[in-house]
Amino acid sequence: MELIDQHAKAIMEGCKERARDAGLRFEDETLEYIVTNRDLLELSPKIMIPTMYDYWVHDVEVLKGKGRYELYPSNPFETVINTRPAISYYNDNNPDWLNVMIFYHVLGHIDFFQNNLFFRHTWDDDFTGQALADKRAITRLRGEYGRWVDYVIEFARSLDNLVDFHGLLSSLHRPRRNGVSPRLDYYFDVFLQERRKVSVNDYVKEIERYNACVREHGAEGEDVFFREVAVGHPEFAAMFEKAGRSRPDQGRDVLQFLLDHSPLLEREENRWMQDILQIVRRTSLYFQPQIRTKIMNEGWASYWHETLFMQDDRISGHEVDFARVNAAVTAMPRVGLNPYALGLRLFSFIEESADKGRYSRDFTALADIEERRRFDLKTHAGRDFIFAVRENYNDFLFINSFIEQDFLDRHRLFVADKVLDEQKMVWRWYVKSRKAEDYKAMVRESLYHPPHITVDLDKTGEDTLYLTHHFEGMPLVAEFIHNTMLGLEFLWGGKVTLETTEVKSVKKPDQQAQAAQPTLPGMAPSPGPEPEIEWQRVRYVMKDRKLDKGVI
């Protein structure tokens, strides 16, 4: 792996100028690396950061990637990660015209990372530097505690989706007090004076360094200052977050609850485990917004590589090549979902609708299809509108707000399903629905949605950790419950109870009524009515590494 050469870097800088002229906003510094096909396949979001801590599962993923490449060689184009500066990886055999397209795609991602509010908590810190400090800490702990370190990592990672991501965002978006951020207050009033107990001379130097950052960088001066703080004091972020939780503990962050209240972790000989849980939790929070904005992020990058590439005079003569590659990336499948394709078409549809003033009461009140088709206020506000969407939405809000019947009709989208043809013993695909609400429901089911599990504070004590799964229509994956609760018992140091909802019985539809439904020649058999599911509340108890289950 090496940095791109000066020729390719010049192409990238030219793309940056054109992207900024179109309205994209991102920091000047970026790093671009050249890697092989095999290297790209081995990179994954949690191991591509060069300073990320090592873990045995990472090695397994690398071996799987190598095996997959031997069986099915492919040519991935790029990988980009949200660090400061942003880092991206490119295939070593890309021609210049293809790099122009890919650079625009990458710049779309970087603009999204650095402006979407769900990434707000990633803007202020140098995660590469933080990851390096974490990696060194785990290496040091491995030298002292050996394989126990990886056991604790394993147990913590089984819980890394039970973090209060939205609680973290809400604390960051609170207004400043007297124009001064709580982070700045804590750093100078508590961290330096009470925690670090620095000398007066060092304290004044920090004030001077902060003032210099503000003078040089203006409104971004505070963020620049705290990136430098993170390098020198990697523990500051965790200490500030813990001190800044003004609300009483509501048990919505299971990992944080263990850090704050676990009797086992509070023992002097086990304090080192807290460092590992904090690292795993911080890493999970860092990657949460990327999981929650997959469709928007890829759609935004695809929108801009398509828009800017066709306006770039450097690609003259390669329009057909671009069309072939772009079609492979952004083709809309008839069955399944392509986040590139769906996001791209939805952003284009939103821009066109906003240009015509269709996000208004006058348009939504229209019922006549011809009047709706002709409606056009010529506002030319579409580009500004999609920039606002890029800033304020995640995938869930994006899908629920903008997928509508006109969009489905425009692109002839539908929900597909399959049914078994018992005569020929083959699966037959059929169009289940063309309604916008059904299509939205299908897309929603594909989105990342961790289980809603909280700590029941009334039932939790020193001898028991009591967790409640707030049922939202989907049961927990049963095969993971034992190992997860085994790790929880170890980290808590006592009995762990989990209350959840599972299937009690499934009532199949009336077979005679189903068989009586007519089937036209050449068509798939009707799927018939859905089975009725009866749910029941159950309680799992893990004690002394034995799991018991009972009905509540």
Structure write-up:
The chain is 53% helix and 13% strand. With 552 residues, it is of the alpha+beta class. The protein has 4 domains: 2-116 and 293-326, no CATH class; 127-265, no CATH class; 331-421, no CATH class; 451-551, no CATH class. The strands form 3 sheets. A 5-stranded mixed beta sheet has the order 7-8-9-10-11, covered by helices on one side. Strands 1-2-4-3 form a 4-stranded mixed beta sheet. A two-stranded antiparallel sheet has the order 5-6. β7 and β8 form a beta hairpin. α9 crosses α10 and α15 (294-309) crosses α17 (339-355). The radius of gyration is 27 Å and the shape is globular. 28% of the residues are buried.
Shape: globular
Strand content: 5-15%
Overall mean pLDDT stands at: 85
| Structural class by helix and strand composition | alpha+beta
Distance between the termini: 56 Å
Question: What share of the residues lie within helices?
Answer: 40-55%
Number of strands: 11
Low-confidence stretches: 44-48, 57-76
Total of DSSP H or I helical runs spanning 4+ residues: 25
Please describe the biggest sheet, giving its number of strands, its sense, and whether it closes into a barrel: 5 strands, mixed
* Strand line-up across the major sheet: 7-8-9-10-11
Structural Rg: 27 Å
